[in-house]
Amino acid sequence: MLFSLAFKNILASKGRTFTTFILSMFTTIFFIVYVAFTDGTHEQIIKNSVEIYTGYAHINTKGYQEESDYDHLIENSRQLETFLSRESFISQFSPRFETYVLLSQKDKTVGSMLSGIIPSRETNLSYLKKSLIKGSYLEDNDTKAIYLGSDLAKRLSVDVGDEIAMIGSSLDYSTAAELFKVKGIFKTGLFEFDSTSAFANKAYLDQIMLSENKASYFVLRFVDNEAAEGYVKTLNENLPKNYESLSWKDLLFDLVQLMQVDSLFGYISISVFFFVIFFVIMIFNYVNIYTRVRQIGLLRALGMTPKDIKTLLFNELFIITLFSVILGAVIGSWIAYYFEVNPITIPGLAEMYKDYGIVADVIPTRFDIPTIIWNTFSIFVLNISSIFYPIYKINKLSVIEAMRYV
Amino acid sequence: MKLIHISKTFFQGSPKEVKALADINLTIDKGEFTTLSGESGSGKTTLLNIIGGLERPTQGSVYIDDIELTALNDEQMAAFRLNHIGFVFQAYNLISVFNVKENIGFIMKLLGDEDTKIDKRIEELAAILQIEDILDKFPDQISGGQQQRVAVARAVASRPKLILADEPTANLDSKNSERLIKMLRTLNEKEHITVIFASHDKYVLDQSKRIIVLEDGEVIEDN
Average model confidence (pLDDT) for chain A? Predict the structure, then answer.
């Protein structure tokens, strides 16, 4: 009965129904699309950082993250390889040896992070090979070949085929020096990375740095990278006690936190918008209910209780909001999905936001059904809660006050 | 029904204070066809509202079938009205989004009666009140007289113990007024429903078995 009356009231008050419907629907669409763009961008930034070089997990000796020096290297790389090859959930792994060196060409000297990698194995763990823009990628038997980030090459004013001198410190703290030839230049789009990173074949670099059978850390890829956290936990339970495994969330802790803070500020900004919408709907409901106060007084006189009135008014808004947020969710989802498949391209975007890890001229969008459901539900609850104050006020009136209300 | 020492003061304690009823004591028996009469401002509507639980007295108690109406809370009072009292208002007060049939069956629906029972009762009342032809129409599609008959049908549909009618003929012409009162009288006799009017309509007074006259909030005549 109350539902039927609510439904008839909705149909009878077309203006109110339409306005409430449109407000709720557009709020839902806006929220879904906004979050899809924000999450998409954040996810892309993190994904770029993870997949371009960092990897989904590392294994290093305890203390390496705090002090990444030679005293915290993995001393027996082969032994660890044997251990890792037995873990079925690890699909790829490779050791890396990282050291800080000076690279010099003519009168230019630049500090750089030189990494020794196994080129063939690295192709499955990072985007280094995919990021090649000039020359060629490293090979496992390369000697004296160096692979430079595009901005580093620019800083050194070198091109493919040019020679650069390297001076660093070997593991016994003696001076390590070599003359490398630029074999290839890469560009990942990660500005910091491209301007400081250089790579060499680990087997050769080990000879210069006296780091044979040693590694700074192992980088891992799992059979299911989404489950990286769980695998890392398992690894930490099984690894020899002087080792630790860290997931990308730990490795990119600052970046993850930055994204969370950015999301938080985004949510705060959008909350202001939602509160405006909330109050608009509430005031609208308030005014609307007060235009029907005599009808409500009559219903109470006829025997409907304040609880019945509450249910009636709640049902009315529930029906309108339910349909509007569902429609809003469908439209918002479609927009999010469309832009995930066909992202918006803005030429020059990557250049403008290179410091933030944006590597392509597109605005990525994330179409994620659980997020959409959750956001839709939030809007639904927000809109529904806007009815409680008007209901409270209307039920405070006595029956006669309501019936005589002008 | 017993009204014991009923007083009602509006805006109590403020400069606008108005004493609407002063120490009213009344007993109304089951099946009575009674009218509360008096000039405008005499307190008849206020008294009717207090009897119907729409308003609370400042002092005193109302008993209907040994239930102290004035002691009930809002929810209990609403339930009591729903179960035992039918209202007929001066301004008809039909629910605009419901058609005539739905308006008549509204209270029975609220009471949770079955559709077949409701339909049967609507047919029966429509025949008595001669509104069979307008059952599918909406309030704004029918005349004032028809609306008031629908309001009566709604009031009696659930067979309440008591019908309270506040100036039911005020907006009707004499022909429709007579027709309405006769119908209420028939329902009073056939269904033994107690009917109390608040009215100063001569025809209503002529048809009443008992007339209680109020003046300045006091009963000055009861016969």
Answer: 88
Q: Which of A5, A298, A304 sits opposite B78 (nearest CB)?
A: A304
Q: What's the pLDDT score for residue B89?
A: 86
With an 8 Å Cβ cutoff, are A9 and B79 in contact? no
Give the gap in angstroms from C-alpha B56 to the nearest C-alpha of chain A.
10
Could you say which of 3.30.70.260, 3.40.50.300, 3.40.50.720, 3.40.30.10 is the CATH number of the domain covering B2-222? 3.40.50.300
SS3 for chain B, per residue? CEEEEEEEEECCCCCCCEEEEEEEEEECCCCCEEEEECCCCCCHHHHHHHHCCCCCCCEEEEEECCEEHHHCCHHHHHHHHHHHEEEECCCCCCCCCCCHHHHHHHHHHHCCCCHHHHHHHHHHHHHHHCCHHHCCCCHHHCCHHHHHHHHHHHHHHCCCCEEEEECCCCCCCHHHHHHHHHHHHHHHHHHCCEEEEECCCHHHHHHCCEEEEEECCEEEEEC
pLDDT at B64 over 70: yes
| pLDDT at residue A356 greater than cutoff 70 | no
All structural domains of chain A with their residue ranges: 2-50+255-403, 63-241
Of B49, B82, B97, the CB nearest to A9: B97
B54: closest CA of chain A, how far (Å): 6
Residues in B closer than 8 angstroms to A17, CB to CB, are none
B93 touches chain A (CB under 8 A): yes
Residue B75, chain A, CB below 8 Å: the answer is: yes
ipTM of this complex > 0.95? no
State yes or no: pLDDT of A49 exceeds 80.
no
Is pLDDT of A50 > 90?
A: no
Which region among A318-332, A351-365, B156-170, B189-203 has the lowest average model confidence (pLDDT)?
A351-365
Q: What is the mean pLDDT of chain B?
A: 90
Confidence of residue A355 (pLDDT cuts 50, 70, 90): low
pLDDT digits (tens, 9 = 90+) for A143-155: 999 999 999 999 9
- Cβ-defined contact of B55 to A1 (cutoff 8 Å): no
> According to the model, what pLDDT value does residue A357 have?
57
Q: What is the pLDDT of residue A11?
A: 86
Q: CA of A9: which chain B residue's CA is closest?
A: B97
Domain ranges of chain B: 2-222
